[in-house]
């Protein structure tokens, strides 16, 4: 080397500063050839490696330089940035804290430490560091937008949006600012606005990985699963190691009916890290949406039981060190689709519930003990209702009046919104109750927020549907805790005291299906309002069937309710009613719909029946069009393993007869109970053969069909607007509160 190492180093610095990285790198390496432990050359060579994305190489060189010349805050800061980029957040935190111990007002270190705390899930610490950084650099958009994300994590939604909008104002051409605003808006449930911001980020930076991932998440929430898959695949072309995108891709594949492909992605994540709890949990609760055969149903139930045993053992072994990751995984999804496999799921659900409770109690031991209200007693019982479906949703159609109609002279009603959109139904609940919006809270915040209300009783309306309720429901947040049939399956949780069911819908011996004490409220247990929305436009496919004189049998259940055992029933009816057509509502994924289509075509083919114009799948319908289809149908066919409730009531409101039979579980007995309450006993068959005979008679005997339609019109009002269950619910809550000691 002609020049001394120090002179060569100055030349390298000049080239490095001018962006001539290859030339600078050559000089740095030349210095190391003569002085292998030259700390400055090592550190700056590490900087070049980091800029080129060679993070492991950068970390190795910069770590050695820091060891050779310790205590340099600038070097420690750079090493901390590399550690953060490599995902070693604990080390990054330690390095940034070391910098701040020497330079407490170092804005870059404060901002970087705040971002690390944000990634570690500690929004409070993130907000403190980022707030301090902002004091010295109020116009830096990177700090402003990061502080916005921290405020979101601290349940300050208004401040989060304000700060992220300010970042966009400061840097309108910065893609990250638009994407972060989009993320905040998505977390607030404002997906249209969120999508616009993410698309603006892509306009500025077409391959912005995080914006693509956000758009994938939005598409998934909208049930546009193939679009979601496409977005996540684009993310992975930009960042092949993006863990959220790989996971999102797996979820989109599973939701669109590509179960084997989705599980393969999850399996790859698990092979890389057997303690990737999010991937393991997603694999556990993944099921086919529509089954190809009964053998597949049986195999999936066995698989779930075996995987549940394995993950329970592994979680117990690693619960102490991996608690945060396990908790996050369980808060992501439920075993919803297990419940649609038919029969008594209590044994599996009880094992599942015990595991959820074990995790919840480890994470929140202060809420694992019985709670007693600490507020001053008054004459009213404080009752809470929690759900993510406090809008025009089937849960609110059935259970909304539990919230709005309890007598306010006896009850102080608190409604906890866990998530979901808002609409006129939401506004009605807000006006009738004390409203607590928990949609932006994390699990710990949600738990403490509910507990802070000092409730006498808490009713979870739909345990099993939304993962956000899963961990909180496994704790003791009120002296009395119950659930309703918003999701008509036992919770399996040892913390839920009572299951509130309808006496007419609960078959004999129903107690065996629940881990909770069964409380049989009168009739249907709810006061269901008569549908008041206008009947909408009839789909062209139905008009075509009507013009061609088809007898229309409608089975409007979600396709995952239709088990293979019922397929031949449709074919038997079709065989005896030659002019019939069987109408279903398609799943958002065509692949899922095709599974049922092929099953039905196979059983029709075996009986020598043509399927053209006889098996019809309608696209997803508006509520008004759904009612129009029910009115136009000649007969509605109830599903066996999971009976209709909302759909049956809406069919009766439209004057259409519904054919049903008794089910072995409450969820298979809904329509039986509704028809019994209406006095429409002639529409209830004793068994499967009787179901076929009744459906055939309605389809071939016009006099009988007309008489049944008239009976429906005359008697349907008996099942709507029933006040009896509301008073019974009030009395049960009062008795339970007194028995618990929360009320004198």
Characterize the structure shown:
The protein has 744 residues and is an alpha/beta fold. Among the domains are: 1-67, Tetratricopeptide repeat domain (Serine Threonine Protein Phosphatase 5, Tetratricopeptide repeat); 367-529 and 724-740, Rossmann fold (3-Layer(aba) Sandwich), CATH 3.40.50.11380; 540-719, Glycogen Phosphorylase B (Rossmann fold). Helices cover 56% and strands 8% of the residues. It contains 32 helices and 13 strands. A 7-stranded parallel beta sheet has the order 3-2-1-4-5-6-7, covered by helices on one side. The chain has a 6-stranded parallel beta sheet with strand order 10-9-8-11-12-13, sandwiched between helices. β2 (411-417), α21 and β3 (434-437) form a beta-alpha-beta unit. 49% of the residues are buried.
Q: Brief overview, please?
A:
This protein is α/β, with parallel strands linked by helices. Among the domains are: 1-67, Serine Threonine Protein Phosphatase 5, Tetratricopeptide repeat (Alpha Horseshoe), CATH 1.25.40.10; 367-529 and 724-740, Rossmann fold (3-Layer(aba) Sandwich), CATH 3.40.50.11380; 540-719, Glycogen Phosphorylase B (Rossmann fold, 3-Layer(aba) Sandwich), CATH 3.40.50.
Question: What distinguishing features does this structure have?
Answer:
7-stranded parallel beta sheet, alpha/beta, Rossmann fold, 744 residues, Serine Threonine Protein Phosphatase 5, Tetratricopeptide repeat, 6-stranded parallel beta sheet
Beta fraction of the residues? 5-15%
The oligomerization state is single chain
What proportion of the residues is helical, as a percent range?
55-70%
Indicate the CATH topology of the domain at 367-529 and 724-740. Rossmann fold
> Any low-confidence stretches, pLDDT <50, length ≥5?
none
Integer average pLDDT: 93
State the helix count: 32
Give the strand order of the largest sheet, numbering strands 1, 2, ... along the chain. 3-2-1-4-5-6-7
Q: Sheet bearing the most strands, described?
A: 7 strands, parallel
Shape label: globular
Structural class: alpha/beta
CATH architecture name of the domain at 367-529 and 724-740:
3-Layer(aba) Sandwich
CATH class of the domain at 367-529 and 724-740: Alpha Beta
The radius of gyration computed from the alpha-carbon positions, rounded to a whole number of angstroms, is 30 Å
What separation lies between the terminal Cα atoms? 92 Å
Would you count the extended β strands for me? 13
